Amino acid sequence: MPASSLRTALLSTAALILAALPASAQQTIEDANRLPAISIEPPTPSRAATARRETRSDVRAPARRSQTRPQRATVARPGEAPQADLASQNGSVPGVSVSATSNATPTAQIGSSVTILTAADIEREQRRTVPDALQQVMGLNVVQSGGPGGQTSVFTRGTNSNHTKVLIDGIEVSDPSNPNRSFDLGQLLTQDIAQIEVLRGPQSGLYGADAIGGVISILTKKGEGPPKIAVTAEGGSHGTFNQFGTLSGSHGGFNYLFSIGHYRSEHTPVTPRDLVPYGRRINPNFYDNLSLSTKLGYDFNEYFSLNYTGRLINSRLLYTGDGGWPSFPNGFRSTQDDLFHFHRGEAVINLLDGRFRNVFGVGYANLDTKNQQPATAFGRPDPTTNIGIRTKYDYRGEFQVIDGQTLVFGVERSDESLNTKTLRAENGNTGAYLQLQSQFTDRIFLTSNVRYDSNDQFGESWTYRVAPVFIVPGAETKLKASVGTGFKAPTLSQLYQSYPAFGFFGNPNLKPEESFGWDVGFEQPLFNDRVRFGVTYFDNDIKNLIQSRSANFISTNVNVGRASTHGFETFATFIVSDALQFQLTYTNTIAKDEIARQELLRRPRHKGGVSATWKPIDKLTLSGTVIVVGSQVDGNRDFSIPRLRTAPYALVNAAANYQLTDQVNVFGRLDNLFNARVEDPTGYLRPGFAAYGGIRVTN
């Protein structure tokens, strides 16, 4: 369906629904119809109850993240939806997920594997960037080339780093100009985040392309109540000086939040000394990030609302690249400048006493990246500039057919473009999906969806997902499972970008990568849910992987690869007392290239973590984390050695928060407490021991 036809259809549908609104709809409501449906609190029962540098590697408190006490509340009607105050200090309600079903649902009713990080989790551990916040999540391996701002790749359950879809308030933020269309999470700060949901397993049945491994959905805070100002300043090791500020509130039907974050790290050691020729200086990384965001909404009445969210990221990274033959780290730094814009507006219309919720949205993403290499004996090379642009029009309906049966359906049209000095390429996709969310009893739940995509370049794709849940009477054991399919569309670079001087040419005949995956597991509460543990086994089969092949001195991309991943995730949480609680996690992952019969790069077989929180007195909170990553296969820094075995490592972090007054909080943290020397990826040092401290003031 062409974009113009879809826009016409959406406008026509909106006009018909507006015409059906009662003329007497005048009463405003304070907390409904938000962008997207992310304002959540536990529902009450209803009557029914690298790319750029990583492409070669591709083929908390323990209290309750995703493993929370089962809630038997039924799925709320769209109109009375789990109202959520994501702008509150706690940020969100633990145990309620939006991403798994596209509407707020207690995790006890969700068969998919999902981990939830709340604003309270992030603030307690003082994680200032999203890669740091994701380090302990089960099923993920987070790889960052160096310190803050370095290229970040996330491998979900052993799938490629571009197989995880990233959304911010419903905006798809992957970069169309990136060779593998991934989003660099290293550019994302946490100051305005209310909740991060990590959904694991193939999710294309609801989310379309790029969700082979899973989805990372980031939901930001929303203003509510009297005007509130919060200001944070922090300083410490590596020339770090950070400032964050928010202004939020609501009045009548209007809610608002404005946020600014400035992150600066002036000298983070990244390059191992043993890689640098004698006499050549070693330069640290410099990183500066200014992020602005806003979320606005107006509820005209109980039937109609308008919402807007926007984000600007302006960052600069000075880093050490490689040059020469054989390759060595350069003596002068390269510069990477990123300017990202993300916007989304939507209209929300409620009908039939809130049983039929309609959301009409339009999104826009513009990702502009400029790289400047240092001067050589032949002069200063020209900078490279890549601009990726995406526009998206969408409609989503949520209709409670009968109590316990909610139908979710939608259509969307997205168009994206790649722009460089020598190439402009475009592609588009039209998609439609249907989902039935069922509660048969207060112990049996089922979510099933199916999706159709029609891509302008490669044609049609059908995907699906089914996820049942059964809670065993008496034992309260949660039995869960899911099965689904996913696909990854060829990127614009893979389709159209050629380098004739090197004998490489794009391939417009590429087909999507495809996957089939399933998992099965259980969660068991004990002692009135003061102890909870669980295990989930997963299995994924991926085919038609896009890889480079050469013949007669000509290279191109072709669909020839196949990979498989399987393993298990396990956790245990313990509430020792009201003041002390902790969590253990462990992930076992076996990821193989089925063609070469080799282990995939940068997928550790063993990864575990421990986190603990202790409140010795009411005003003081202490937290600590231990992250253990086992040995894995990697290449050296320039891949002149394509396969080597790395050493395992462990990182220990500690944080403290002290509430001086109701308005003033002082805090500090120690990262890499024992100064472990870690190269992950190989050839890039992770920061050593570091100490930070700061103050947060609110009105």
Written account of the structure:
- The protein has 699 residues and is mainly beta.
- The protein has a single domain (3-291, 302-345, 353-698), classed as Beta Barrel (Maltoporin, Chain A), CATH 2.40.170.
- The protein contains six helices and 37 strands.
- It has a 22-stranded antiparallel barrel. A five-stranded mixed β-sheet has the order 3-8-9-6-7. Strands 1-2 form a two-stranded antiparallel ribbon.
- The longest helix is centred in the first third of the chain and has 17 residues, at 3-19.
The computed structural class is mainly beta
CATH classification class: Mainly Beta
| Helical content class | under 10%
Number of individual domains: 1
Number of distinct beta strands: 37
| CATH H level, superfamily name | TonB-dependent receptor, beta-barrel domain
Count helical runs: 6
- C-alpha-based Rg, rounded: 24 Å
Sheet of most strands: 22 strands, antiparallel, barrel
Sheet-strand content, in percent, reads: over 45%
CATH topology description? Maltoporin, Chain A
| Shape, principal axes of CA atoms | globular
Average pLDDT level = 88
CATH architecture: Beta Barrel
Distance between the termini: 51 Å
Low-confidence stretches: 1-94
Subcellular location: Cell outer membrane
Domain TonB-dependent receptor plug: 109-215
Signal peptide: 1-25
Membrane topology: Multi-pass membrane protein
